[in-house]
Amino acid sequence: MTRKQWLLSGFVAFTCLASTAAVSGPIENYSPVTAQRLENPEPKNWMLYRRTYDGHGYSPLDQINTSNVKNLTPVWTFATGVVEGHQAPPIVNNGAMFVTTPMGQVIALNAKTGDEYWRYKRQLPDDLFQLHPTNRGVGLWEDKLYLATTDDHVVALDAKTGKVVWDTKVQDYRKGQYLTLMPLIVDGKVIVGGSGGEFGVRGYVVAYDAKDGKELWRTYTIPGEGEPGHDTWQGDDWKNGGGSAWMTGNYDKETKTIYWGVGNAAPWPGDSHPGDNLYTSSVLALDPDTGKIKAYHQYHQNDSWDWDEVEAPMLIDLQRNGRTIKSLVHPGRDAIFWVLERTPTKINYVAGWPFVHTDVWKGIDETGKPIVDPAHKPVMGKRVEFCPSLWGGKDWPSAAYSQRTGLVYVPANENFCGGFTGEKVPLKPGELWLGTKPEDIGLKTRPGADHFGELQAWDPATGKKVWQHNFPKSQLFGSVTATAGDLVFVGGTNDRNFRAFHAKTGELLWEQKTNSGIVGMPVSYEIDGTQYIAIQSGWGVDAQRIQDALVTNNIGIEANVPQGGVVWVFALKK
Amino acid sequence: MSRASFTTNFTSSENSRQPDAEVDAEQTRRTVLLGALAVTACLGCSAHARAGEDPPGSDERPQKGDVLVYSQGDKEGKLITAADLNAGGPPVHAWPKDPNTSVVRSGSRLNEILIIRLDPAELDEKTRARAVEGIIAYSAICSHAGCPVTAWVKSDVGDKEVFKCMCHNSEFDPRAGAQVVFGPAPRRLAALPLALADGSLSIAGNFMGKVGGTQPG
């Protein structure tokens, strides 16, 4: 061996050592995930998008509570090295944590120490058009993880090593098809819904076999010829009608029904696609074995405002008028707090009321159809203004429900209005197809508004608002989590704070400044008798867009929120 | 809006039956594996030819000597000359076109170009040196998340008009080499040198700088 070869081999050996020293993987003693564990998750774990299939976003852990939360302190952090909106909940299974980041990375960490086991980096194509560069987490099943990617693949990873087990192309990203959600895992099926309504795609929900990635069924959210609901579309509008299904569904394990939120119609102005446009801006009840649509409820017809209703409704048992209603509760992007009843064959309208100011609806009829004021419904060839803005009363960030207080906690935005001019735009696959020029979309604040973001607490059984916390200089754009310690955790503001509120009174009990803004979802877990709270801080995507729009309103709002993702984990100071 | 009444009216929704005709044919395990292999093989490709759709060369990056044609609007496909460009903007969206084969290089969205004519006195020294009669060209793909730069609007942070990517609000100043003036974009748009002869525009060299978005980590 020459001196040069020797030096080179030494260099290679050194870099390999350095590389292996950075991680401690693989994960040993991984706990396989079963249907039983997902249906009745241990209190100490967070294995589903909202921890439980009913979508409550509630942890039964109570070591951290209203009396001691003031002692909550960071115990470890981990910089992901990625910018843009970090929207995924840290998923925790018996001491192993999995976080996803924008650009399709998955990082496996020791949930107690923050040490890295392994990292999967998706090699995204250079020509990918990432309108929503984000990811909302991995699903778990047996010894695998499932990732949905923005280049429209579903990937199965070995949970212990991060190695790819299978990789299935869903559709063609070059035609505006992409995925951002955390897969819903039901009894060995990996179920995802497609994004891309703003590209004029036809939405769908699809299930894959967790073992090998084989497609099991695909249900389109826009009914094709011969299918029920097709007559709510005219001509060929259905072929590009939108109806994205880009948030994780919830699941009723008793009736074996999944409930999936469906997005808005495309393009935006309603008169460009006459009709009710099923199943856009709806919730679908689906059979997880076949994809069969068992029932649906359309929140609002002929959507014209970009008000998708993609967050799945929460499954809550409500006591109302002397009986238990198995309800579906959905604070909508359309500014209406919806209470529905789920039965094995129907979804019934129970009640609805506005939870932020809106000038679009005049009321709700007895069947549950909102009555529209045509003066505030966008059409082609004319500028129309409406309240709330196109981000709605509450966008995709999730509300939470506390089984202890019986309250629903809503990350709402008040005093925002918007508008645009409807314009005929030719459809080109893979290009934006909004029905307006993107630069023509406006966000305005209402005159005299003294705040924007609101954390609201509602009693869904009575329609009574119990408390509200206002944020004077920021939107609220982050998911909410409740705990049995009577705490409500949320980020979502542009001051980079992570906060805990008293679940019963709304009193602000604790806040911690983080590296960036928090768009993601808080979770809670327990290891060796210690309760932890975890969150990803990483501002971006729509929270950033609202921020930029607010800056131009000259209301003295913070203009710069630093980007870059960090996992923060907190516990009580010992 | 007046508050809608909180009704207890239990109005049923219609049931629906299973859609069937439009469901894609079930993939076999073999096709899944083949698909995955094909994807793996293609990872790292900077441009994706659409097999069977685009002619050879359409996904290749702009070549020296290529002419420019409109990529959108009523004049789509027609040759762009210097006389078509109004001083002060707005930019024209273009594809490169091989003058020998007449192939328009529209097979990759990374090839879309913004061409603008500005007052040479407004350009900084480096940009002016590269401009021909105030005409300059840049990649139309944002360096942040790969969205298209579509707008020519007044900046959120200044009084001049700028290129803007409406996906995430990144703004670029074409007078200063398309440097970032607002938003999350990490670097300037790639520039494309042009040549001008007898009023005809052509491409004088490769993109200067990386085309497309950033993949961190």
UniProtKB/TrEMBL annotation, chain A:
Cofactor: how and how many bound: Binds 1 Ca(2+) ion per subunit. Binds 1 PQQ group per subunit.
UniProt xrefs under InterPro entries: ADHI, PQQ_b-propeller_rpt, PQQ_MeOH/EtOH_DH, PQQ_rpt_dom, Quinoprotein_ADH-like_sf
Binding site for pyrroloquinoline quinone: R136, T180
Keyword check for Metal-binding: yes
Active site: D306
Cofactors that this protein relies on: Ca(2+); pyrroloquinoline quinone
Signal peptide: 1-21
GO MF terms, alphabetically ordered: calcium ion binding; oxidoreductase activity, acting on CH-OH group of donors
Residues where Ca(2+) binds: E198, N264, D306
Domain of life per record: Bacteria
Keywords carried by this UniProt record: Calcium, Metal-binding, Oxidoreductase, PQQ, Signal
Gene Ontology CC: membrane
Every Pyrrolo-quinoline quinone repeat domain range: 46-343, 476-533
NCBIfam families documented for this protein: PQQ_enz_alc_DH (TIGR03075)
Annotated family: Belongs to the bacterial PQQ dehydrogenase family.
Protein name: PQQ-dependent dehydrogenase, methanol/ethanol family
From TrEMBL, chain B:
Domain annotation Rieske: ranges: 130-203
GO cellular component: membrane
Region feature (Disordered): 1-26
Skewed-composition ranges (Low complexity): 1-16
Keyword Iron-sulfur: yes
PROSITE patterns tied to this protein: RIESKE (PS51296)
Name of the protein in its database record: 2Fe-2S ferredoxin
PANTHER family found in the cross-reference section: CYTOCHROME B-C1 COMPLEX SUBUNIT RIESKE, MITOCHONDRIAL
GO molecular function, one term: metal ion binding
Keywords on record: 2Fe-2S, Disulfide bond, Iron, Iron-sulfur, Metal-binding
Protein source organism: Bradyrhizobium betae
Cofactor (UniProt): [2Fe-2S] cluster
